[in-house]
Amino acid sequence: MTKRYAFIGNNLSLDFVNTVGYISSENPTENLNSFSDLIEWSKQGKLISDDEAIVIFTKAKKNILESERVFWRVLRLRKSVYDIFRSVISGEEIFDKDLTVFNRELSLAMSKAEIFCREGELIWDWKNDGIERILFLITRVAAQLLTSSDLEKLKCCSGENCGWLFYDTSKNKRRQWCDMRDCGNLAKARRFRVKKAR
After folding, report:
1. What CATH number was assigned to the domain covering residues 12-197?
2. pTM above 0.85?
């Protein structure tokens, strides 16, 4: 059965770091366990098309060592991006080591980007047959968010041990949880139990 991923961050780079469950706890759960998982997540998040996924998967099967190396780069990038976002949210200094990892991937991505003409429009992109394509796309989305003018909308879920990130697009800008049906309901239930015990 196909694993279903959560897309609650209102930005794919946030959904990417949210592929670790209970990230603030002592026992986080990993939801990306292979390059195939990464491809499936990218398809579900509409980062790549079904056709692109087939091409990347086929090429990855023919180049297992390269796809494994790219996958470990993806996990390293995810950790650095998460730490950078958390620093932005808390107003703390961003560590140089995290920016170094991120900028290394950004430089690689930019060095391999090309201008394409699609449906009469010029865009910059990467060839869809590259194993690194997903990594490059994630890096670009994260860079766009990090350099946006609305970073105050970046938030971390208030749920106990959750730690998932989201971009608050609510009207009153008071969203507290990654998902009201999950962490939101748990928080309400805890408050109810505390109130009842008094």
Report:
1. 1.10.3300.10
2. yes
